[in-house]
Design goal:
Helices cover 0% and strands 44% of the residues. With 227 residues, the chain is an all-beta fold.
């Protein structure tokens, strides 16, 4: 059977020219019923203009309001910009989702203007001995029992600090991952042959387990499919 990998979808975010957007100081914050999820939402009512829509600067902070409902967006990306828990655009800090104590693949830094910056990863030096490969960070520490992002790729290091390869089950989040022979973690790779007659399917960052692949094959909880 011929295996076909999943095409990687590339999303391009357009920048926002905030200098062309006027500040809105003459308004009032209001809490309203969110008809979409039966929770509360926040809107900013501008005198004689109704609810604010899109990007608005209020009290020296940038906010984004849904173009249709006027609801304030929070804890979410809008293009290359991240709106925090209070809806204000974050600046000069990391936006990181967590897998237990280690970061997953959503780790970005937003700069002075709030825009997401590219991140190559941890700086340091690879070292090899008779056991395998380790990575010494610039501060002299070694990643141990954790993911580390190095030269635009994700790796995982065991409890002794050695880079792993092959299949890896992360007990922190229950995810099954696959690392190539050079230690790089597979992402959006589709079908991968791992042994004679055995396959895995990498969808996004993880191997499919106990589910059906996009092309219709069921893979059980082991993550392994055999012809």
């Amino acid at each position: 059977m011929k295996k076909v990998g999943i095409a990687v979808m590339m999303v391009i975010f357009l920048g926002v020219n905030f200098s062309n957007i006027s500040a809105n100081e003459n308004g009032t914050w209001k809490e309203v019923d969110n008809e979409q999820n039966q929770n509360k939402a926040y809107v900013y009512e501008i005198e004689n203009k109704g609810y604010a829509k899109g990007w608005n600067e209020i009290d020296n902070e940038w906010y984004y309001f849904n173009e249709i409902t006027g609801y304030r967006v929070q804890n979410s990306w809008v293009g290359d910009y991240y709106l925090g828990a209070d809806g204000a655009m974050l600046k000069n800090e990391w936006v990181v989702d967590k897998i237990g104590t280690t970061p997953n693949l959503n780790a970005y830094y937003v700069g002075e203007d709030g825009k997401k910056l590219s991140y190559r990863g941890c700086e340091g030096e690879w070292k090899q001995d008779q056991t395998g490969w380790q990575f010494e960070r610039k501060d002299g520490t070694y990643p141990m029992s954790e993911f580390e992002y190095i030269d635009n790729h994700w790796y995982f290091f065991d409890s002794k600090g050695y880079m792993i390869t092959g299949l890896f089950y992360n007990t922190e989040n229950g995810g099954l991952y696959y690392f190539y022979s050079d230690g790089i973690m597979a992402s959006d790779a589709g079908w991968i042959s791992v042994s004679d007659g055995s396959w895995i399917f990498v969808n996004g960052n993880k191997c499919i387990t106990n589910a059906i692949t996009p092309d219709g094959y069921f893979i059980d909880e082991t993550g392994i499919w055999k012809e």
